[in-house]
Design a protein that fits this description.
Length: 181
């Protein structure tokens, strides 16, 4: 993926960034929230984690689907769903999301779920993604995920799953856990 989209830097932080900005989704609550609130079946690919993915590991542990990693959304093995936590860099993340939604639109996959910051949908430049009839809704996480085993500081960003798939009706917003802990 780095070859197609270029280097993947994140944002400025007071903490040293990991090489290649590799932050697997180690907080298993993220994946649990997705499978508790959406019907995910078949073969799942995480196209943004060729080095390994906490998403894939958690899905396989839960026995929900057969999940694998790929290194490029446009050249991945056949799959039913794309479930990923894309790197966040303005512009890059929009290109990745647009490519993924195009895969759903063409029927190459049945659906897609992206783990994004909770306010990612508010940007005017992303209005078309959320006006798309394939946009089914979100699962908003009532916790802030940890991205490393280090617990020096509490996470500061809220996240949600954003889902695109064929279907009827207005997009729905779900919360997980359903009752705040």
């Amino acid at each position: 993926m780095a070859e197609k989209y270029g280097p993947i830097p994140y944002v400025h932080s007071r903490f040293q960034r990991k090489e290649s900005d590799h932050y697997p989704t180690i907080d298993s609550r993220c994946v649990q929230a997705l499978v508790d609130t959406w019907v995910i079946s078949g073969v799942v690919v995480d196209c943004c984690a060729p080095q390994g993915s906490g998403i894939v590991d958690a899905l396989n542990r839960l026995g929900c689907v057969r999940a694998v990693c790929a290194d490029d959304v446009l050249h991945m093995d056949p799959a039913d769903w794309i479930i990923t936590n894309p790197p966040y860099k303005r512009g890059l993340v929009d290109t990745i999301a647009t490519d993924i939604v195009a895969k759903v639109r063409t029927g190459a996959v049945r659906g897609a779920a992206l783990l994004m910051r909770a306010n990612w949908d508010l940007a005017a430049c992303r209005a078309a993604l959320f006006a798309d009839p394939l946009y089914r809704g979100q699962t908003r996480l009532r916790f802030r995920p940890f991205w490393s085993e280090e617990r020096k500081a509490q996470p500061i960003h809220a996240f949600c799953w954003v889902v695109w798939a064929p279907g009827q009706g207005e997009p729905v917003i779900r919360y997980w856990p359903r009752i705040a802990a």
